[in-house]
Amino acid sequence: MSWPLTLDGGAALGAGLLLGVAFGFVLERAGLGDPKKLVGLFYLEDFTMLKVMFSAIAVASAGIALLAVFGVMDLAALAVQPTYLWPQIVGGLVLGAGFALGGY
Amino acid sequence: MRPYWSPYTAGVALGATLLLTYVLMGFGLGASGAFTHVAAALEGAVAPGRAQANSYIAGYLEAGRLWAQWVVIEMLGVVLGGVLGAWSAGRFAWRLDRGAAIGGGRRLLFAFVGGATVGFASRIAQGCTSGLALSGGAVLAPGAWAFLMAFMAGGFAMAWMVRRIWR
User: Fold this and answer.
1) ipTM, 2 decimals?
2) pLDDT at residue B167, rounded to an integer
3) How far apart, in Å, are the Cα atoms of B35 and each of A83, B8, B94, B116?
4) Inter-chain residue contact A26 with B81, CB threshold 8 Å
5) pTM of whole model > 0.90?
6) Between helices A48-69 and B7-25, what is the axis angle to 10°?
7) CA A74, CA A60: separation in Å to the nearest integer?
8) Where are the domains of chain A?
9) Which residues from A are below 8 Å from B110, CB to CB?
10) What is the sign, positive or negative, of the torsion defined by CA atoms of A3, B78, A23, B123?
């Protein structure tokens, strides 16, 4: 149960910069820097966002679960987003609407 | 110009990045929080009295200097990574992507209104498609999945209403 490492200070910021670079690089290579691909789902024309997002969630959650099963990852130490159901539903509706408005 | 990656290859790479973030930090990737930190810092600089009187903004200011905030540095990395990805693939260029039926000025206006709507919504939901849907989805947070379903519903509904602008 040695993970998560929960870095702090300069190590955390350095890791944050590198993880951000990886995040931005992958999003760009996936084509999600293209606004047409970002809103394509809502016109049933381009499912890139859906495929990238769900395969990423599948890989990360399976990885976390496996690490927990082998006793490497302490699930209780992970920050899980709290549930505020109505604000999250209303926020999701408005955020989706904003995506579609932004268009391309 | 190199072609885009397969969405599944990109998804696996993004999932690995997200997993590594949870291993190193104990939390996931984010985006909208960085903009909130910047907005709070701006208000703190321009109208400190007003910023301190707002407990939500004051909470962000108490976190300390802007450049010491994890999500701000991570977001800076996202911009760098995006530029690096586009540049190394031969895609880096100044251009305005827009639908055939819309002029440049209106395109930018709609982009601004859409962006402001997304920013506003991210504060209602306490997260965006990165920090809530993606990171929360990976740790099976119920609110993240409710948000994701509502995000799709809102997107489809608004896309139907504004489709004439983009078709």
Assistant:
1) 0.97
2) 75
3) 22, 29, 23, 11
4) yes
5) yes
6) 40
7) 15
8) 10-103
9) 101-103
10) positive
